[in-house]
Amino acid sequence: MGHAASPGDGFFDEWAARLRQSAERPVVGILLRGSHARRGATEHSDVDLDVLVDDASGAGPANGGPHPVPYAARRAYLAESGGRLTHVSVAVRDVRSWLAHLGEPADWAFGLPVTAPARLLWADPRWRPRLDLPVLCQPADEPRLEELIATLGKVAGARARDDHLGVRLAAADLARLCPSVLRLANPSVRVVSRRYAFAAALDLSVAPSGYRDDMLLCLGARPGSTGQLWAAAARLVTGTVPLVRPYADEIAAVAGLDLADALLDGRLDRYLAQLTNPVPPPRPPRSPEPGQPRWDSSPVPAPRAGQWVTVPVPHAPVTGAHAEQTPPAAGGAARPSALDPAIAARLRRTPDGLVAAVVRQHDTGEVLMVAWMDDEALHRTLTTGRATYWSRSRGEYWVKGATSGHHQYVRSVALDCDGDALLVSVDQVGAACHTGHRTCFFTELPVTVTGEPA
């Protein structure tokens, strides 16, 4: 559909003169903004005008002069033009506050920088050099990682209280914050309107898996239950943090060194795991039946740091819920998987459909642990960058570090010559062993050589 022509210059000149005459303060400039200024108006578009006023005497409030006009002071009119009514939206603003406002991020731009066309309709000659701006530029917002993390906590809190409306409100706030953080890892983009900002925020090239769908869900542009909203919010944040880890210096400049250090040393991952996998309260001990011995009622010890946990990924992210259990088939791949068929064809699996995975630290070669993967666990490991395994005892997928914070960020995966073992090179955060040791191979065995080698 083509755009409607803007009202003629006579229409704008008439309104500029009318607004200058009716203003209670000296007018120094009148600008046309919005869709008419960027030549994108339709027959339904408003005419947006900024009337900039000043105290010509220079006397401020402290000297008995008038107070600055608030930035949001507005008046509205319905004007007839060409047989149609047009909504004219007028914002009367203090010129100095208006100029200062251009140095601040736009609250509608999802944290992205703004370059919005404008048209100067009239200006006092003394102010014209400062107001004759073909575009109005506003900077990008700071990477608000701290606020993003705090907002995930609000979503978690509302969910724990069964506050469905609170979940939706906090999830929408979280989605609006997310692009300001992801902007660090993405090419620079400038936006001209709220609609363009929305589209640009959804189309960031460096983003977590499922980012666009999760953003639409959290922003209320796609229907979903509160449980789905919570899962989407958790995916957005836990997927964003690894992507901005290389930009810790920029985070430090905004939020301080402690948050930047936490981003690097694993504390932030542990905190997110704490939010997304809350530990259920212990059950109170049962009183013994009359005549029965009283057993020790002390609480069960908490899991040690680094203990493995099971979580469903990536479609049902870190929620503490158990993954669907599928009984393994005899021989071959045990469960349906999206693994590349070319890779799947090279695997030689156990009768349970599994392949051994030897895990090592990528830069030192230190062997950390051995676990098992089926086709789907390997697919998730290769596509999410997070080491994902199959638990034979529990019949579930689990992501290393999802609760403990001792994550494994995958650098490479290699298949051995026989196809029955994988070498997974990772960046290990904290302990790899569920005992709290750095490596599972911490028990040295004596080696006794009884004779000379042949």
From TrEMBL:
Gene Ontology terms for molecular function: magnesium ion binding; phosphoribosyl-AMP cyclohydrolase activity; phosphoribosyl-ATP diphosphatase activity; zinc ion binding
UniProt domain Nucleotidyltransferase substrate binding: residue ranges: 146-244
Cofactor(s) of this protein: Mg(2+); Zn(2+)
Annotated metabolic or biological route of this protein: Amino-acid biosynthesis; L-histidine biosynthesis; L-histidine from 5-phospho-alpha-D-ribose 1-diphosphate: step 2/9; Amino-acid biosynthesis; L-histidine biosynthesis; L-histidine from 5-phospho-alpha-D-ribose 1-diphosphate: step 3/9
Compartments, record wording: Cytoplasm
Keyword Lyase among UniProt keywords: no
Binding site for Mg(2+): D416, D418, D420
Alphabetical GO biological process terms: L-histidine biosynthetic process
Residue spans of biased composition, Pro residues class: 278-291
Known role: Catalyzes the hydrolysis of the adenine ring of phosphoribosyl-AMP.
Entry's family note: In the N-terminal section; belongs to the PRA-CH family.
Assembly and oligomerization: Homodimer.
Protein name per UniProt: Phosphoribosyl-AMP cyclohydrolase
Organism of provenance: Micromonospora olivasterospora
Gene of this entry: hisI
